[in-house]
Design brief:
The complex is a heterotrimer. Chain B is mostly helical. Chain B has twelve helices and two strands. In chain B, β1 (about 130-135) and β2 form a beta hairpin. By secondary structure, chain C is mainly alpha-helical. Chain C has a domain at about 20-230. Chains in contact: A-B, A-C, B-C. The interface between B and C is large, with 49 and 45 residues.
Chain lengths: ~375, ~290, ~300
């Protein structure tokens, strides 16, 4: 009998001992943020880079300088393996068990969209998800983390049709959400110029052979061929093109693809490929923010090579920290959102001066590059889409 | 579709098909001896490819030596796994062992990700990238090389099974374990041997295909194609595995060439189901006559 | 004694939402949904020995059917939607089962694997219907005047359906059909010789298994609220197989235990990030080495001191 009383007493004490937080995720000494992301499954590499080597990298720097208004920032991450149902379970855990202040840098349209209703209902800010579908646009609690795919398509096609005067376009795309979304927007943007795609071939994730698709694309004789793929299949496509000696088309990579990974895999098959770059060159750019990024990476994770995925997480944390600073010591979710909305001409030293408007998009630009001698050479200045 | 294109696509498909065939063969070798389906076959291949790659870069080894590293590593890995884990579950049902190999595949994939990250890496190839023009057709040395090496390995396996003592022992155990034991064959040795042999075949396949699909922790998923090929050809039959593999590789390439986007990826699978309807034991499989 | 245990279990289940942290109710919903699938899969694989690696396909069919029905016909009450999802999936199950009657062992497994892929592809490509890769938002379930808008509300729906399905399964197993299933598993030829119409019962097994999974799919749609082809890949099918083998083939309580163990493990290990599959794999291996035949068998053995089946 006395045991039951002891249990009851203990429970009451425990419940009473939970400190009443002024705002969930914010205590006297720390701010808690986190996300559900891919640490296993098809996007494990990008997930790990964006969180542990991206967001955490910048936050280490912030914490070392004393934190934000005296509060250190702590991160919590859970693996969802790109499964929407696990992303939902993890996100509920983050909000209800870990009491996060905001969700930062989750990845993938399916896992993110699955959690949207829940986050909106519980008024939890969703900051800079690493995905490009426009479904996250202009929502009160969400701020996008990448130039959205419709803007990328518009920038690319306006440039290629308007400035370079190309007319015949084709695309090879991945048979998933990323590929199909770009396909839809390419068709839309070309229609605006009175043009159509002459060929569109899909490649399954994890395909071993792409010879048929490349052969069909060659048969359609496009002037420009868009590559909406991940690094592996993209490199396969480029090598295949080299194999069949198909020289008279310009290969163009979309934003998410334009990075050093496919260059490493395609080697010399990538020469002359152009694309829309969403970030400055992580290894060679001389911008002050980029130099600091590399210095911090060298300091905290010397074995990890700088790359665009960790850079996007790093940038996300930078925006968060800036907004949290501006929101003041009395940090609330509403305050954070207001602070983000107040960013005008914010100098990150990485991207052009940032102004966040009512569409809550943090990135709306890219610049054109061409691969020369294994590196991306900028051809234009930042191209913007408003 | 020009003839040149068709030839190119078919040859490319045959090359991939050879790899599927090798994977199918390794699955069948283990299955014949132990009646177990090794879920971890692909991951074992992946680990040996990684080890080859690591040693190639760390010690500046010639590629052939690196391949030997892969083969040796796979043999050691197979022996370890078979002795340490599978042997202890001999009493368990085949389903239990299935889950054990599943657990192994998860562990190996995660382990590779922890050691080398889940990134993708270029793998050096024995064959050059420059195509050889043969009249109007351009043949890729890579494809030819893969086909040649695979056929060579298959021929070696044929000789092994037909003319060596160990090969005959394996066939005996595959036919009837009890009788083989009564004839004085060490069934345990055959088990270990099958695992090692299957791994070695897988390792060679891995080194051949890694330049094409790139080295990464998810490389092992190719085992699913191997399984499909083995069933298509008749599970348990080695010539069936070869036939199944080649057929699957070519089909997978012809489908996108002629069929619209909507169904082109389903076609190999639908065809598989169709073939199984007509020949329930696969193309070359023997329908089991069972005595009651 | 047994009735007391069952009664207290029932009470515990009813009171669960108040006994556990809030997010665990969502997890409980997933566990129950997986348990229903596991029972269905066990009826096929554990009883008639037709191992299926394509059950994620059945789950997807049930889920999308329920979601689309609710979107296009919002007036239909939820229990009917779930039932319809189950029935339509069962029809697909028969369509798959009949051609596969002549297939055995690994060949049947391969056919189900292929089926899983075909379903995935179909969902992706029929995007005028399923919204393909963009994913499908599932409307909130409606039961008469009530809207099941919270995890707790959905928990009771899921629990009610599960109780019905478990009772039905136990019933099935102890009837003639169940005994026929077992006979087929032991020896198809003997069963046929003994007068059991093997083909009919194998087809029934497929249909029932698909029905269970389709019902679970409908529940899944409402529990998660969002469907996309990524949710139903081959790894999910493998998870279901792991559930019934870990739990115990041919055992209804085993299926439930297996589903609970795997689902909870997945969730608990999420914090280990990229070590997650490593630990999960190790647990699977250890589990099978120390509990051959599954948890149900291990429990039975220890409880009855070496008793038989």
């Amino acid at each position: 009998m006395s045991t039951w009383w002891a249990v009851l007493l203990a429970s009451l004490i425990t419940l009473g001992a939970v400190p009443a937080a002024a705002q969930q995720g914010v205590t006297d000494s720390e701010i808690i943020v986190g996300c559900s992301n891919s640490f296993s499954g098809p996007l494990a590499f990008t997930g790990e880079q964006a969180t542990r080597f991206g967001v955490d990298l910048y936050l280490k720097y912030v914490n070392d300088l004393g934190g934000i208004h005296g509060r250190k920032v702590r991160t919590v991450y859970y693996d969802d393996g790109y499964k929407p149902q696990e992303a939902v379970a993890n996100t509920k855990k983050l909000v209800e068990q870990d009491g996060v202040f905001a969700v930062i840098a989750p990845q993938g349209t399916a896992p993110v969209v699955a959690t949207l209703d829940y986050l909106e209902q519980n008024r939890v800010p969703l900051l800079f998800p690493y995905q490009g579908s426009p479904v996250t646009r202009a929502k009160r609690f969400i701020f996008s983390g990448m130039t959205l795919y419709d803007r990328q398509s518009r920038v690319m096609i306006d440039y290629l049709v308007g400035q370079r005067r190309y007319k015949k376009f084709a695309t090879v795309y991945q048979d998933d959400e990323y590929g199909k979304t770009f396909l839809t927007f390419f068709e839309k943007e070309l229609a605006r110029h009175g043009l159509r795609l002459v060929a569109a071939e899909s490649i399954k994730r994890g395909a071993t052979d792409v010879s048929a698709q490349i052969a069909k694309l060659q048969a359609a004789t496009p002037e420009v061929t868009f590559l909406v793929l991940t690094p592996g299949p993209a490199a396969q496509a480029l090598k295949e093109r080299q194999k069949i000696g198909w020289k008279d088309t310009l290969m163009v990579s979309t934003g998410p693809l334009t990075d050093e990974r496919y260059l490493a895999l395609a080697a010399e098959a990538a020469e002359g490929v152009e694309g829309l770059s969403l970030w400055p060159d992580p290894l060679t750019s001389d911008l002050p923010g980029m130099r600091q990024y590399r210095a911090l990476m060298q300091k905290y994770f010397p074995k990890n090579e700088p790359n665009r995925y960790s850079l996007s997480g790093y940038f996300a944390a930078m925006l968060f920290a800036e907004a949290a600073k501006r929101a003041g010591r009395n940090l609330t979710r509403e305050g954070l959102i207001a602070a983000l909305e107040s960013l005008k001409g914010f100098e990150s030293g990485i991207l052009p001066p940032l102004t966040i408007g009512p569409d809550h998009e943090t990135q709306k630009q890219g610049f054109w590059v061409r691969v020369e001698k294994g590196r991306f050479k900028p051809l234009t200045d930042w191209l913007r889409s408003e | 579709m020009t003839t040149a294109t068709l030839v190119h696509v078919v040859v490319s498909g045959l090359a991939t098909g050879c790899i599927y065939a090798l994977m199918a063969i390794s699955l069948v070798i283990i299955y014949n001896a132990t009646r177990t389906l090794n879920f971890a076959q692909g991951e074992m291949l992946m680990i040996s490819a990684f080890l080859a790659w690591a040693s190639y870069h760390a010690f500046r080894l010639p590629l052939l030596v690196a391949m030997l590293v892969a083969v040796t590593a796979s043999a050691v890995l197979a022996l370890l796994i078979e002795r340490a884990i599978i042997r202890h579950s001999i009493a368990a049902t085949h389903f239990d062992v299935l889950i054990i190999t599943l657990g192994l595949s998860l562990m190996l994939r995660a382990g590779a990700g922890i050691v080398w990250t889940h990134d993708e890496f270029p793998f050096p190839s024995f064959f050059s990238d420059r195509p050889i023009p043969l009249g109007p057709v351009r043949i890729a040395p890579g494809s030819l090389g893969i086909i040649g090496a695979s056929l060579g390995l298959m021929a070696a396996l044929y000789l092994l099974f037909t003319y060596t003592r160990f090969g005959r022992a394996m066939r005996a155990v595959a036919q009837n374990q009890r009788a083989a034991r009564l004839m004085g064959i060490s069934v345990e040795r055959v088990y270990s041997g099958s695992w090692v042999l299957a791994s070695v075949v897988g390792a060679v396949a891995g080194v051949l295909i890694a330049p094409v699909i790139f080295l990464s922790s998810k490389m092992g998923l190719i085992v699913i194609n191997g399984f499909t090929a083995a069933v298509l050809g008749g599970f348990g039959s080695l010539p069936g595995a070869v036939l199944g593999g080649m057929l699957l590789g070519v089909l997978e390439n012809l489908a996108p060439l002629y069929l619209p986007t909507g169904i082109k990826y389903s076609v190999p699978f639908l065809l598989l189901i169709g073939i199984l309807m007509l020949r329930p034991s696969g193309l070359l499989g023997r329908s089991l006559q069972r005595k009651v | 004694m047994r009735r007391l245990a069952l009664a207290s279990l029932g009470l515990l289940l009813l009171a669960l939402p108040w006994l556990v942290p809030r997010y665990f109710v969502f997890l409980a919903n997933l566990i129950v949904v997986n348990a229903i699938v596991a029972i269905g899969l066990n009826l096929l694989s554990g009883y008639t020995n037709q191992l299926s690696f394509g059950h994620a396909g059945f789950l997807a069919i049930g889920a999308y059917f329920a979601a689309l029905l609710t979107i296009h016909a919002p007036g239909v009450p939820v229990p009917l939607t779930i039932l319809a999802a189950g029935v339509s999936t069962a029809a697909v199950g028969v369509a798959l089962g009949v051609p596969c009657l002549r297939l055995e062992g690994l060949y049947l497994t391969m056919a189900t694997l292929a089926f899983g892929y075909v379903v995935s592809e179909a969902i992706l490509n029929l995007d005028w219907l399923t919204r393909g890769a963009d994913g499908l938002r599932v409307p909130v379930a409606g039961l008469g005047p009530w809207r099941l808008a919270t995890d707790v509300a959905r928990y009771y729906l899921v629990l009610a359906v599960a109780v019905l399905m478990v009772l039905a399964a136990r019933n099935l197993v102890s009837t003639r059909t169940g005994r026929a299933f077992l006979a087929i598993r032991e020896s198809q030829i003997a069963a046929q010789a003994g007068g059991i119409h093997v083909a009919a019962y194998k087809t029934i097994a497929f249909a029932v298994s698909a029905f269970y999974t389709g019902v679970a799919g409908g529940l899944f749609a409402f529990v998660v609220g969002y469907l996309s082809p990524d949710a139903f890949d081959v790894f999910l099918s493998v998870d279901f197989v792991a559930m019934i083998i870990i739990g115990g083939l041919g055992s209804v309580p085993g299926s439930i235990i297996g589903a609970a163990v795997i689902t909870v493990l997945h969730d608990w290990l999420a914090a280990f990030q990229n070590y997650r599959p490593l630990i999960f794999g190790a647990i699977l291996i250890a589990g099978m080495l120390f509990m051959p035949g599954g948890i149900a068998r291990a429990l039975r053995v220890s409880l009855t001191r070496g008793g038989g089946v």
